[in-house]
Amino acid sequence: MRNRFDEQLELLNVELIRMGALCEDAISYASRTLMGEGDFANEVYKADHEIDQKEREIENLCMRLLLQQQPVAKDLRQVSSALKMISDMERIGDQASDIAEICGFVDDREAKSRLHIRDMADATMRMVTQSIDSYVKRDLNIAKEVVQYDDVVDDLFDKVKQELIGMLSAGNNDEKLGEFCIDMLMIAKYFERIGDHATNIAEWVEYSITGTHLE
């Protein structure tokens, strides 16, 4: 009985890794589209769709584990935490899609390369990867690093805001520049939210290990 349960837990880990990789793909394609490396919007939408499918598959797996195995204590926390984590990962896919959609309206200005948004994208991808890694490895230290690293994303968001304010101040009431800055601020906000979701995942990992969930 226990061997069967362990096999299903291992399958759950594999599926979470796959869902996490899809989240990384969605973020990466959205960032590349923004930076003018090509139009990868359809790749973002495809990844988002696959993330939605993976959420349903993992949810079904977790429900089978709960109903058939009736886990208790640490095992119950592990399965219930996975259910919470996939909800945050699904939102990451949605926000990457939102970024890709806005990219279709952002005009092609060199200013994009001078903003810290690419750094935000890289930071959030790192957070997503490490949060899933901490769950699979049952590593509390990695989870705590993710929570702390959210400060880096928040600092980058503040830098983007200041950069955009500076551009507007020097823009001489350029209407197109105003639209550009609003779009870029929205994109930066979506990346900041992705960092928040990765933090949520790490906090659920902490709960699954310790039984304590930090708000």
From TrEMBL:
Homodimer. It comes from Ventrimonas faecis. Its main location: cytoplasm. Gene3D superfamilies: Phosphate transport system protein phou homolog 2, domain 2. InterPro entries: PhoU, PhoU-like_sf, PhoU_dom. It is found in: Cytoplasm. Plays a role in the regulation of phosphate uptake. Belongs to the PhoU family. PANTHER family: PHOSPHATE-SPECIFIC TRANSPORT SYSTEM ACCESSORY PROTEIN PHOU (PTHR42930). The keyword Transport applies. Keywords: Cytoplasm, Phosphate transport, Transport. This is Phosphate-specific transport system accessory protein PhoU. Pfam families: PhoU. It comes from the Bacteria. Residues 16-102, 117-205 form the PhoU domain.
